[in-house]
Structure formats: C-alpha cells, structure tokens
Amino acid sequence: MAGLTTHVLDTAGGQPAAGVPLRVHRVDDDRRELIASAVTNADGRTDLPLVPAELLESACYELEFDVADYFSRDLTDRSALGSAFLGTVVIRVNLTAGSDYHVPLLVSPFGYSTYRGS
User: DSSP assignment, residue 53?
Assistant: First the structure.
C-alpha cells in the first residue's frame, strides 16, 4: 500500500516540476499539524510516500506546494510567461484510513488543477 503520494507537473513547460518544496498538514478544526515535508525529484514526485499507508488516518489533510520559486527559476525560456501569479498552492482533501491516495498537481504560473489519481 502506498498511502498518500503526489506528482507535480508543469503544464506550461510540458515537464515534471522538479525541486518543488511541499508540506502535508493534518487539519482538525482550526488546528494544523505538520506531518510531512518533501521536495519533488526530477520526475516531479517524492521519493517516498508523503504519508505511509500504516500512518494514514481518517482526517482532513492539506498539501501545500511552494510553486513560486519553481517558476522563478530559469528552467526553460519563460520570458513569454512573465512572473508567477501563484505562490503556494494549497489542496485540502478528506482521506480515509485504509485507502491509497495519489493527489497530482498540474500547475502553470497562472493556474492549477488537481484530481484523485491512481
């Protein structure tokens, strides 16, 4: 079992988004508890699950992706894109213990989308 995993894709550059710092918080009412942090690898993924299956609880989680620095780096010719509009993308999801979740982030400097992957 994988638990909670992610994948970040740069839709403007047509490539995986490497080097994106991210954090996972468990949310309970107004309390947020940091439970994981990572940086995406060359494939836009984390090397290990963000939350292993045996530690995944039924709860609300927030995934925070710091995308502004990624888009400010000179990875490709971004002169036509201008500066990044997005700073940190926050995705709040409700997860159930005993299930596997893959939460991809498709991101450009000016927008993003996500879905429950497999």
Answer: G
